[in-house]
Amino acid sequence: MQNTFEHALPDAKGYFGEYGGSFIPPELETIMGEIAAAYDECKNDPGYLEELARLYKHFVGRPSPIFYAENLSSKYGVDIYLKREDLNHTGAHKINHCLGEALLAKKMGKKKLIAETGAGQHGVALATAAALVGLECDIYMGEVDIRKEHPNVVRMRILGANVIPATHGRKTLKEAVDAAFEAYMKDPITQIYAIGSVVGPHPFPMMVRDFQSIIGNEAKVQFREMTGGLPDNLVACVGGGSNAMGLFTAFLDEDDVKIHGAEPAGRSLNLEGEHAATLTLGEPGIMHGFKSYMLKDKEGEPQEVYSVASGLDYPSVGPQHSYLKDEGRVNYGTIGDDEAIDAFFELSRLEGIIPAIESAHAVAYALKLAKQGEKGSILINLSGRGDKDIDFVVEQYGAKYGIESLV
């Protein structure tokens, strides 16, 4: 496997411009240095890269295909393509970095993987990777999300992971991160915190970005083979932002490709605690060991956030996204709950593909571009499938879309 993990940013201290870095207790600095050194060794180790490539091909099922959404394209008057990360083993893009992190942990002699999860996709992927390489696994998940994403909770437990509820605050993703960090601090020697997005202290934003960059590297080749050129637009949802960086990275130097990130507007952008539009309404700040845009309350603490998508309700965002916003390379807009659910049903009923609610934000943003007059091609990162969401969607929105309860 060729090493495609070399990029200009971050710098040696983990900064993307002014964002990123490592704001952690002194007792963790040595540990993070060891992780960074081990990753630097692994990404230049042909044996490690070949093993990862083997698992991507024969375990995950990569490359994931690009699908031309003919029915959506016909209806909206623009060529819409889907990068089908929903077809990966475990149902989302998360397996891409979980395998990389699990192999790294094994190489470092760790005994346990710990992590947070919101929608449960990262938790399922990490539990899967842990089972594959023979490590213990603890997954922290907000109580609200445990109820909402019950199918994924069951999968994690079947795979042998301990699912540990986060019971403070809003009991969602931010609180799960808090709980996982607290557990990691108690024993950073025998376990590794396998962060689930391009967030956290250095080297995690870089490391997760690198593992996820396979999405865009594949897509660039596939789209040229399909069309003879590159897409005019890329669209991905942005919570922490791993699936988006996975698609965007290969295209950042392609000036003719417009790049769009869709943040969750939730119920209302005008009400604090009713959205998670970090890049749209936030400001620079430090939380969970890194500097990035974040949503702050009146005391300057992380603001309570909300999204219908459990994987997007986080009050910060990956530091490279903040850098790309300030540089003007990526346009970050918003999609509300109702728009996302409309797109969820639109893709399901026009193309026979049920997306994750997170991914439905990206679909909705692409349809918005088409409605606004965009005529160029649009490549959407369909980051996950909606199996985990169907009970919740039918319970909350079924009547609106003509689905009557059979119970």
Brief account:
The protein is α/β, with parallel strands linked by helices and 407 residues long.
Characterise the protein shown here.
This protein is α/β, with parallel strands linked by helices. It has two domains: 15-59 and 94-209, Rossmann fold; 61-91 and 213-401, 3-Layer(aba) Sandwich (Rossmann fold), CATH 3.40.50.1100. 43% of the residues lie in helices and 17% in strands. It has 16 helices and 14 strands. The chain has helices spanning 26-42, 46-60, 70-76, 95-107, 121-133, 143-148, 150-158, 173-186, 204-212, 214-227, 242-248, 278-281, 319-327, 337-351, 357-371, 390-397, and strands at 15-16, 19-20, 66-68, 80-84, 112-117, 136-142, 162-166, 191-193, 233-237, 258-266, 283-287, 290-294, 330-336, 378-382. The longest helix has 17 residues, at 26-42. It is globular, with a radius of gyration of 20 Å.
Task: Please supply descriptive tags for the structure shown above.
407 residues; alpha/beta; Rossmann fold; 2 domains; six-stranded mixed β-sheet; four-stranded parallel β-sheet; 16 helices; 14 strands; 43% helix; globular; lyase
- Helical content (DSSP H or I, runs of 4+): 40-55%
- Rounded mean pLDDT score: 95
Beta-strand percentage range: 15-25%
Return the structural class.
Answer: alpha/beta
CATH T-level topology of the largest domain: Rossmann fold
Oligomeric status of the shown chains? single chain
Q: Compute the CA-based radius of gyration.
A: 20 Å
Main sheet summary: 6 strands, mixed
CATH architecture term of the largest domain:
3-Layer(aba) Sandwich
What's the total number of strands? 14
Terminal-residue CA separation = 51 Å
SSE topology string: EEHHEHEHEHEHHEHEHHEHEHEEHEHHEH
* Number of structural units classed as domains: 2
CATH class of the largest domain: Alpha Beta
Silhouette: globular
Strand arrangement across the biggest beta sheet: 3-4-14-9-10-13
